């Protein structure tokens, strides 16, 4: 009886999910994915660009086309067997909701256990997300926390509140300080500055070939937008 249970448990795959606008995906994203993979013994990490980033609709600079962001993510992960790129949210019409994504993934892959990777600041906003109970029911949340973070006490308090209110499974993911942002990278491209040590080489090549973040960017199909 116990031997059968042990064999069944070994078949459960531990899958991390790192979602984001990825406009563009940069080395900071990949480092966090790598550290989650190593620290929690994951079988792989899904890199998942959002489809319609409705929470950024107010941004003066419009978010790049979802297919462009998907292609950059594919370029970033190419050749790394630890990572897999998911087009689930890019192909889904309408807004991108984490609850819907997790529901679809779990239904399609009942033998997988999901670990949703978020920044510490994001954890403090999750109770206001669409269907938070569904999110906490379907995954373990990995909250990336820097060792030099000053508000760790408030973060721990919010984690405890989420555990009490939703039965949330929350683990802290220790990460190094990474001062990289997609906003800064886009600005550097516009200013003609190099981005070689901000993104990996395939992503840099994609940005330059498609003239992204300039006056007339080229779409994924190769035509000016």
What secondary-structure arrangement, pairings included, does this model have?
Elements: H1 2-10, E1 13-20, H2 27-39, E2 44-49, H3 66-77, E3 83-85, H4 88-91, H5 98-108, E4 112-119, H6 120-123, H7 132-138, E5 139-146, H8 152-166, E6 169-175, H9 182-190, H10 201-209
Parallel strand pairs: 1-2, 1-4, 2-3, 4-5, 5-6
Explain this structure.
This protein has about 220 residues and is an alpha/beta fold. It has one domain (about 15-180): HUPs (Rossmann fold), CATH 3.40.50.620. Helices cover about 40% and strands about 20% of the residues. Helix 3 (about 65-75) links the parallel strand 2 (about 45-50) and strand 3. It is globular, with a radius of gyration of 18 Å. The chain starts with a helix and ends in a 16-residue tail after the last helix. Mean pLDDT is about 90; it is low at about 1-10.
Global shape: globular
DSSP strand count: 6
Straight-line N-to-C gap: 61 Å
Uncertain spans:
1-8
Structural class: alpha/beta
Helical amount: 40-55%
SS element count, helices: 10
CATH architecture: 3-Layer(aba) Sandwich
Mean pLDDT: 89
Gist?
By secondary structure, the chain is α/β, with parallel strands linked by helices.
């Amino acid at each position: 009886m116990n031997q059968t249970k042990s064999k069944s448990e070994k078949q459960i795959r531990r899958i991390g999910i790192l979602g984001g606008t990825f406009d563009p995906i940069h080395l900071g994203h990949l480092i966090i994915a790598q550290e989650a993979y190593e620290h929690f013994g994951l079988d792989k990490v899904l890199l998942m660009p959002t489809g319609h980033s409705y929470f950024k609709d107010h941004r003066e600079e419009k978010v790049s086309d979802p297919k462009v962001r998907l292609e950059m993510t594919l370029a970033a992960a190419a050749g790394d067997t630890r990572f897999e790129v998911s087009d689930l949210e890019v192909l889904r019409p309408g807004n991108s909701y984490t609850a819907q994504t997790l529901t679809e993934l779990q239904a399609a892959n009942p033998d997988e256990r999901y670990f949703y990777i978020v920044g510490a600041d994001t954890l403090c906003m999750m109770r206001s997300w669409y269907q938070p109970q569904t999110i906490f029911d379907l995954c373990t949340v990995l909250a990336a926390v820097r060792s030099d973070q000053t508000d760790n006490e408030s973060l721990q308090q919010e984690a405890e509140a989420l555990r009490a209110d939703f039965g949330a499974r929350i683990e802290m993911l220790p990460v190094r300080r990474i001062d990289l942002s997609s906003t800064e990278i886009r600005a550097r491209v516009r200013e003609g500055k190099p981005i070689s040590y901000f993104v990996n080489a395939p992503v840099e090549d994609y940005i330059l070939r498609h003239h992204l973040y300039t006056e007339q960017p080229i779409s994924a199909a190769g035509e000016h937008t």
